[in-house]
Amino acid sequence: MSSWRGVLEQYREWLELPQGISPVTLLEGNTPLLSIPHLAADWNSSAAYVKVEGMNPTGSFKDRGMTAAVSVAVAGGARALICASTGNTAASAAAYAARAGLRCIVLIPEGQVAAGKLAGARAHGAEVVQIQGSFDAALELVQELAPLLPAVLVNSLNPDRLEGQATAAFEILDHLGGAPDWLALPVGNAGNISALWLGFRRMAEKRSSGTPRILGAQAAGAAPLVVGSPVENPRTVASAIRIGRPARGPQALAAARESGGGIVSVPDSEILRAQADLASEGIWVEPASAAGVAAARAEIESGRIDIKGKTIVFIATGHGLKDPALYPHVNDPILTVLANPRALMEALRT
Amino acid sequence: MSSWRGVLEQYREWLELPQGISPVTLLEGNTPLLSIPHLAADWNSSAAYVKVEGMNPTGSFKDRGMTAAVSVAVAGGARALICASTGNTAASAAAYAARAGLRCIVLIPEGQVAAGKLAGARAHGAEVVQIQGSFDAALELVQELAPLLPAVLVNSLNPDRLEGQATAAFEILDHLGGAPDWLALPVGNAGNISALWLGFRRMAEKRSSGTPRILGAQAAGAAPLVVGSPVENPRTVASAIRIGRPARGPQALAAARESGGGIVSVPDSEILRAQADLASEGIWVEPASAAGVAAARAEIESGRIDIKGKTIVFIATGHGLKDPALYPHVNDPILTVLANPRALMEALRT
């Protein structure tokens, strides 16, 4: 068994971070690449995998970037962190801030953040403030506030975040022995697609490992990179990608284009269907995490993408526990039965 | 980077399971052993670690046992699984049943299971039935129903569950290069303490790796192994150990005694304090998972245990996301502020 020391130790030589920093780590990364045989068979792909990023310490991929951003912040003498968040960034920033003994300030859009995500941030002692505005307004505000407080901005505008998140690409390459043909993932603020493309390109240059074609997925009601302009009131059940003005938009579009892929939008109904498909393979993800599967299905079934005999990897960005209320049927009343065997056998037959 | 293949592949030679079974795996295990330097310093221990079992696929240690139980069930031709659960077993059984294409029936005590746990089970398509009775009544019922349905019982009465859960001991030994001086963990139905002791003993016989003294922790309102008799109406905020009639009680008492440790009870207030202590080290756990820390603190501060210069490992059984509502303060109203910098600076100062 390996003794995993976190993504910064594991990939130090591949990361463009200041030399000699001490990692602030919760032993993030090293997440499973799990096969999804039923979907692979449906599509005649040679192999389909999910990179299960919900198995990071705070339940999402954000921890990879946060270990980098917080480690650099501490090396620079920071005392406080600040971020805007739809939830996952908040939980991650709060956990790493606690680990490092830093103050953590989180701005969230009022009423827009899943309860479980918020609870994590508050459990770690972050100061959570709701603003009367969207995520995009919150992201503008934290950029203004960061130098005034002062606090280090740990949204994915912070380049160290992208370095850390590139490690997911390194792990996929290490696992498969080279790049998959396709990589599909949700696109919200667009930091992750940018980071993964950065990671694959960097390794391709140094090790000739090849690069995947990248398929980015936005929700139909929050698809600024598909419609070509900001969306003022983004709407989708997939709260983690409910973003109308992505901070890394141009980079995301470049990543899709340069890789030979694209960014497409998918309706919420298809996102929830994909979430159910993953659950039936044993993987419970939050809705946004299923957007890549929904997008791949649409592209494959329409014939725009052919993955027969090819390998595809999906990035499942966050755990289902992050947003349990949204799953279809989980809010239905539960059958309640007397505690005797006959009543139960009867109930189970119907 | 290792390509982890799950606990059955990793520890096949150490496990007493039928030969040649194909693992049904979600790539569980390989969880971090994370240092908790502040608590270690408070106690003058040479090192204190948390085995972060919430980073398993369904967010708890149950996945280790479930991969074993479900793999054996499938090899035996089973079509259905059944269990009683306070929540974590349900989520795990449901996920592995989905992976294997089996029916999954879960009995839960009415109104006693944290919402996030239940959502997971239902997301994976399990049939969840509430019974008008306690967990202990549910556990009696599933034993009656299993042969009638027929369905394989996957509670920790199932010996394969214990084999799988023993792998946490193997990982700790691999990581530390030998046994810690102390191991502390929560005790509910008592399967996990029994499994870990089994794992440490087995490896000690084969590899002379030594064994830890084991400190089991029960909640004061649900402490049958401390008071010496079943508790009819167990009460505690720590829902995962709200069990009054532990199925593996005698084994748990033997494990504590043989190892040179003990089983003690801790009040809910101390469990919640320990949860906050772990959160301030960057680890958010569900309340039950903090019981071991609460017990260790009580034993150390009273002088009954001396861990100066010694190593202690805590098993944090489940993720904080499993039960987010319970954390102190997470239900307090969140500060809401206008989306302008001046209002925010003012709010953050107060």
What secondary-structure arrangement, pairings included, does this model have?
Two copies of one chain form a homodimer.
Chain A: H1 7-10, E1 33-35, H2 37-43, E2 47-52, H3 62-75, E3 80-84, H4 88-100, E4 103-109, H5 115-123, E5 127-131, H6 135-148, E6 152-153, H7 159-165, H8 167-176, E7 182-186, H9 191-207, E8 213-219, H10 224-227, H11 249-259, E9 262-266, H12 268-280, H13 291-301, E10 311-316, E11 335-337, H14 341-349
Parallel strand pairs in A: 2-10, 3-4, 3-6, 4-5, 7-8, 7-10, 8-9
Antiparallel strand pairs in A: 1-2
Helix pairs in contact in A: 3-4, 3-7, 4-5, 7-9, 8-9, 9-11, 12-13
Low-confidence stretches of chain A: none
DSSP summary: helix tally of chain A: 14
Overall, the morphology of chain A is: globular
Q: How confident overall, as mean pLDDT of chain A?
A: 94
Q: Label the structural class of chain A.
A: alpha/beta
Helical amount of chain A:
40-55%
The chain pair with the largest interface is:
A-B, 80 and 81 residues
Biggest sheet of chain A: strands side by side, in what order?
A: 1-2-10-7-8-9
* Oligomeric state of the chains present here: homodimer
Radius of gyration of chain A: 20 Å
Compressed to H and E, one letter per element, the order of chain A equals HEHEHEHEHEHEHHEHEHHEHHEEH
End-to-end Cα distance of chain A: 47 Å
Task: Report the β-strand fraction of chain A as a percent range.
Answer: 15-25%
